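Fold this complex.
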Amino acid sequence: MIDPVAVNDIMAAAIAGALIIMFGATYALLFAFSRLRGQRLLMIGAYLAYGLLAVSVAVLARTLNLEGFWQSVTAVMLVGYFVAPRLIWNLCAGTHPPHGDDNPGTHPNPHSASGGTMQ
Amino acid sequence: MSIGTFDSSNLDAGQKVAVKYFSVAIVLFVAQILFGLLAGIQFIAPDFLYNVLDFNVNRMVHINAMIVWMLFGFIGSVYWLVEDESGVPLVGAKLANLNFWIFTTAVVVVVLVYLFVQVGPGTQSSIWLINEGREYIEAPRWADIGIVVCMLIFFYNVAATFMKGKWSGISGVLVLDLVALAGLYLAGMFFTANISMDQYWWWWVIHLWVEATWEVLVGCIMAWGLMKTLGARRKIVTTWLYIEVALMFGSGILGLGHHYFWIGTPEYWFTIGGFFSALEPIPLVAMVVHAVYDSGVHRFRNGNHPALAWLIAHAFGNFFGAGVWGFMHTLPQINLYTHGTQWTASHGHLAFFGAYATIIIAVMYLAVQKWRGGVWMSGDMPGNGWKWKWSFALLNIGVVGMTVALLIAGYEQSFIERALEGSTWAGYFAGQTQPWFIQGMEWRMLFGWVTAAGIVLLVWDLATIGRGETRTAINPAVSGEPATAAA
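Structure:
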């Protein structure tokens, strides 16, 4: 059975949950911009955001009294947030062809263009 | 082809059906906000319309109108893109029109019964003719069956059109999703005496419809919409659609478990629900990285500024409404206190608006543009496009304001009613009378009026934008300056 959050920790738990998503997105955002622009400073910011994410996860784990299986969930979550932006970036680079490789919005169907909005 | 006026000759057969669905969707959207306002007033003045239109009726119509206008919006969006995507005329256009009129008439009858009959005796006749009594899917049984039949006809139209034309990644995912759209609704149509079992199946409709089939529908519409508004490449949007479906299978379906915490199901649902709910934000992180990648690598031009603005609102609304507001209270250790409070309503308002309303409004702007002959809807619109900008601002500010106000009220409710008072009746009333709760409801009402002002402007704008315009739209796939259409 789960051990519910203590009354005094309800707000801290909720804020920590929200911050996990916010810092997760900030880490991903700064990571992606750093890769895009090749700026080391942005990558430092990304890792700073990840550090704050880890702190938020720790606060959530403490306030929600997470033990045993639940601690492994938080560990998986931390690892997942760390690697997800890298995997997605590699996926983006792998799935986006170089310029001019294909036509924007081109339909595989030769009978296409029965009325796209912009035509 | 005429430009600057609503002319159905600008539309293909599927799009003619689509604009009918969009028109009803807008009427129901207005109804949703109207009955939301009435219900909001009753939180502040409980005697308001007492024994005439009680809170339970207003709330029911508010939520049912939302579900149905979004359903109409999704159906309209799919009819809008089906010929463009398949390359052939809509199969069964007459049947599609007949289906629209049957569906619309049924919705009108159901709403009239909700408003004027309201309740009946505890017999089968009430379940079949008045109200099934199941929260969010109150529609009487005849209407349930009608919804499934209408969805199957819709499925036939779409699947037969793609079978006659050509398949693509988007159409394949879309057609499979429509099977689930009709099939899952069946789970809400039978009764079991055990309330836990009843709730178990009920959530299949509520959660899986919304977080599985609707999400995938939105993914298909978004993929097509990005090609049309930004000229995004088909190969890329299709790849990401597949990734979204994979992530949905990985987290969205078993994320259902976070609804099974407190309905009497076995304890392993704590584990399943908690774990998969923790995974649900991953697609949102992916979305952030992908958006940055695309904005930096490609230089997009956009031919419909209102539609693009609403697509951007969709990305942010989905992130905050579903991601931040969802994860804030999804794990069982805290959900024990927040489940079913105004905290949930706060999450519901932002998530439904951000994830679904925004994208349907975006497609409506695309539809209006084509209906008026592919008119200019980029910068330098008459009046600097003030109506769409103000409606966009008012609707977003209104919904975000309601969300924050409900969050404050929900926090107080969780704290006083649930945590301190232990979910007793006394606790319930103690929670409802706390100043933070009352003030939260008052602020929610204020932002409700802001939202209402936004919908008035939105309707006005959709009816008038592009009127008299002589310039044709930018084709985002091919950069170019606006052209003045030949009269």
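Residues 8 and 118 of chain A are 56 Å apart (CA to CA).
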